[in-house]
Amino acid sequence: MSSYLAVSLRGRIGMTILYVRGYMKLYCTDVTLPELTVFRQRVSEERMKRMERYRFEIDRRRGLAAEALLNYGLRELCPGLSVPVSLSRDENGKPSVIFSEKERILLKEAGLLLPSEDTVAFSLSHAGNYALCAISEEHGAIGADLEEQRRDNRKIAEHFFCPGEIEAIRSTGAFYDYWTLKESFIKAVGQGLKLPLDSFEVLLGENGKDARYLQDFDKKRYEGRLYPVLPGYSIAVCAEAPASFPEDITFVTF
Predict the structure, then answer these.
(1) CATH number for the domain including 83?
(2) What is the pTM of this model?
């Protein structure tokens, strides 16, 4: 029997969204709750070796928890898949999952892969006491970012953001909302630090939750969404348009 417990998270209150093919799935966990060995049992050897380099336990917990969420989500969406999966990274540091031919067949049968695809789109993030994982069932680029609102960083915006974003932050103080929306876009397009923060602009909608991007990086359209579900944290997800963002984040307790 699985030792995972999953519940819906929408400001800690809300209705669980049933799995519908084509939806995106978002998972979050408190990295401070389980014993460290619980995470170690649910990640790859490569992740274990990387985490051993960190001096502080909280840093190890964050990295282990993020990958544990990925394995949880993949197994939930494709029950026949063997986990933990193995990851590789490209020249920009963007991770991808290494699947065998048998595993790719299982994923295609589950609707997570198109016939022409080799891997599943996902994004990991962690900060403070939480880790986040986004998995796309829409076969497109995806990026997710989680940040702890620790201090006023508006000076960063003044130096590196677009004029429209700077003006919006001056009037609202919502630096971390724009920061996570920008970070999630950078992750979605897979460019890492190569992409200057002022080379694309976040346009936040009137509802204060949905966003679009002005960019000429490629010909694709991207959309973003904020998830204000954790006090003191900002969470944003970016995906190719049209994106089917879920209303809820699944909070996983290991």
Answers:
(1) 3.90.470.20
(2) 0.88
Range of the domain at 16: 5-150+227-253
pLDDT by 10s per residue, the chain, length 254: 333 344 444 433 333 333 333 568 999 999 999 999 999 999 998 899 989 899 999 999 999 999 999 999 999 999 999 999 988 888 888 888 989 999 999 988 887 887 778 888 999 999 999 999 999 876 678 999 999 998 888 889 999 999 999 999 999 999 999 999 999 999 999 887 788 999 999 999 999 999 999 999 888 999 999 999 999 999 999 999 888 899 999 999 98
DSSP per-residue string spanning the chain: ----EEEEESTT--PPPPP-TT-EEEEEEETTSS-HHHHHTTS-HHHHHHHTT-SSHHHHHHHHHHHHHHHHHHHHH-TT--SSPEEEE-TT--EEEE--HHHHHHHHHTTSS-TT--S-EEEEEEETTEEEEEEESSSS-EEEEEEE--S--HHHHHHHS-HHHHHHHHHH--HHHHHHHHHHHHHHHT-GGGS-GGGEEEEE-TTSSEEEEEE-SSS--EEEEE---STTEEEEEEEESSP---S-EEEEE-
Q: How many domains does the chain have?
A: 1
